[in-house]
Design brief:
Number of strands: 14
Order of helices and strands: EHHEHEEEHEEHEHEHEEHEHEHEH
Shape: globular
Radius of gyration: 19 Å
Number of helices: 11
Structural class: alpha/beta
Distance between the termini: 31 Å
CATH topology of the largest domain: Rossmann fold
Helix content: 25-40%
Strand order of the largest sheet: 8-7-6-9-11-10
């Protein structure tokens, strides 16, 4: 059968990585088959460069990777950023003012640095677990930091990350790209009452990956399959020719998908990639969803 897609965009957490935070062997083999067939496979993640780098080097996909929810792009070898947006001094000033007024942890993330103040409680300390490479600094060092790609706020707000994100957005009253989620969606934080809000420079989120594919490889968005599991994947869902949600995705994400697979441990992702390579009907993999 004739192949209908030429590129595959893969989110990391909850999608390419299983519940043990590893890439299943069957998925590795399927990706190798896709690459041999000439399909471009690209990682598209909300992770920072520091956090994603070991996985990118292990996979060695030969394509750029989208990082920081679209605010940065690293080269095919994962060795340098070829695109990087940073938050303006004006925005940073307003974010620091919000922190002083409302509390919560504020983590500043650059290409190679993550800075925050010392946690004030065990709960705050636990909320940082799994965040790669965080350095504790004093107030002066935090205020002086420049070239910030993302600011992450962590706060004890129950499950309502949207309300907290809205408060930050109203305080800023300037263009930024924001994502938010309750920490409890992450395996190591299932019992957490903290929420995370990520503030990035203006961009199109993960939809920036479609632009990169077009610019670097001439691949039209209609020929792209995008796979993810969270609300930050929706921009690439809306821009891609085929949007695929994992079975562990929330109802809002599944509703915007053209196809819903089984969950991250089901093996469906590997089966979908093989079917994509062979030009088979992907809808045969449709799961019942949630």
């Amino acid at each position: 059968m004739t192949r209908t897609h030429d590129a595959l965009l893969l989110d990391l957490d909850g999608t390419l990585l299983d519940s043990q935070e590893t890439v299943p062997s069957a998925t590795r083999l399927a990706i190798a088959e896709a690459r041999e067939a000439g399909i471009k496979v690209m990682v598209v993640t909300g992770r920072s460069w520091l956090s994603a780098e070991p996985i990118l080097k292990e996979l060695d996909l030969g394509t750029p990777a989208l990082l920081f929810n679209g605010a940065a792009v690293c080269d095919a070898k994962g060795e340098r950023l070829i695109e990087e947006r940073v938050l303006s001094n004006r925005i940073m000033g307003k974010l620091h003012a919000f922190r002083r007024e409302h509390g919560g942890l504020m983590i500043l993330m650059g290409a190679r640095r993550k800075l925050c103040l010392q946690p004030r409680s065990k709960a705050e300390e636990r909320s940082l677990e799994g965040l790669t490479g965080v350095q504790y600094v004093d107030e002066a060092a935090l205020m002086a930091e420049e070239y910030v790609v993302r600011v992450t706020f962590l706060a004890d707000r129950g499950e309502d990350s949207g309300a907290y994100a809205g408060a930050i957005e109203n305080h800023l009253a300037q263009p930024v790209y924001m994502t938010h989620f309750p920490l409890s969606i992450l395996a190591r934080h299932r019992a957490s009452q903290f929420v995370a809000v990520d503030v990035h420079p203006p961009c199109r989120g993960k939809a920036e990956a479609l632009r990169v594919l077009k610019e670097q490889f001439g691949i039209d968005p209609s020929r792209v399959v995008a796979v993810g599991d969270a609300s930050n994947d929706l921009p690439m869902f809306r821009a891609a020719g085929l949007a695929v949600a994992m079975g562990n995705a929330g109802p809002d994400v599944q509703q915007e998908a053209d196809l819903v697979l089984g969950d991250l441990d089901s093996g469906d992702l590997a089966r979908m990639i093989v079917a994509m390579v062979r030009g088979e009907d992907l809808q045969s993999l449709q799961s019942s969803g949630v």
